[in-house]
Amino acid sequence: MTERDKGSRIHRTAALPRLAEQGTGLHTVCAELTYNPYLLHTSVKFNGQTPRVNSLIEKYQNLPLRDWVEQIPKIFYDEMNGYGFDLYFSGTKSDFLMVQQAFLKAGISSGEVCVLFRNMLEDVDIKYQEVGALLQWLKENRNRKFDYASFMDRGAELFEESYLYVIINGDVLEWPDPQVSLEPVDSTAELEALTLYNVPILFCVDDRDRFQRELSWPAGM
To answer: Which of 20, 108, 136, 182 could form a disulfide linkage to 103, CB 3.0–4.6 angstroms apart?
Structure first.
């Protein structure tokens, strides 16, 4: 595992059960989890019923799934009165793998909770490619009925978002590429206060021996 992997790939997806890629459940009871990352919409059903009043689902359903995915095994255990159910997930493939991994990390086998992929949304990378292709087409096929320049100006924050990197023990506050944004931190301990998901981590090393002595990772990373 590289240093970048430690910071940017919190949820590993290796050695996942093949059964979860198929549509075959193991149990007579089931739960459903639907998550649309583009609309930030979460829908959950337990045995066909919506969550009860004061369910923890209400606390998390308006948050990005990655912010509470590790709570899912415990929440579903409480709502389903134990394990021994199938969980049907609808969303992107990467989010499905993240949910599946959350159960494995909690020590829950596929025999206890069989996580199944029901309906697929295109992943973020594909969406980015499609949006990029659309913007390029609009740029190359301008007409008087569509003000391309005004459209791009109004959506600048959406279409020209910079790439974020975290740099540890570095003083670089500017970067020649305007699409790159650097977030400096003094030590790995500060990473605990950051939400890192697919964020590359850079190290500024001016003393190799001191770097090796001081390098340590916060718990859970």
So the answer is: 108
Q: SS3 helix, strand, coil % of the chain, rounded to 5?
A: 40, 20, 40
What is the torsional sign of CA 17, 19, 21, 26? negative
Q: Is the dihedral of CA 104, 106, 110, 116 positive or negative?
A: negative
pLDDT value at 130 more than 90: no
| Whole-angstrom distance, CA of residue 111 vs CA of residue 131 | 40
Domain holding 42: CATH number? Answer: 3.30.420
Q: Are 59 and 116 spatial neighbours (Cβ–Cβ below 8 Å)?
A: no
Tell me the sheet residues that pair with 143.
Answer: 146
pLDDT (tens digit per residue) in 17-70: 433 444 566 778 999 999 998 888 999 999 999 988 888 898 888 889 988 999
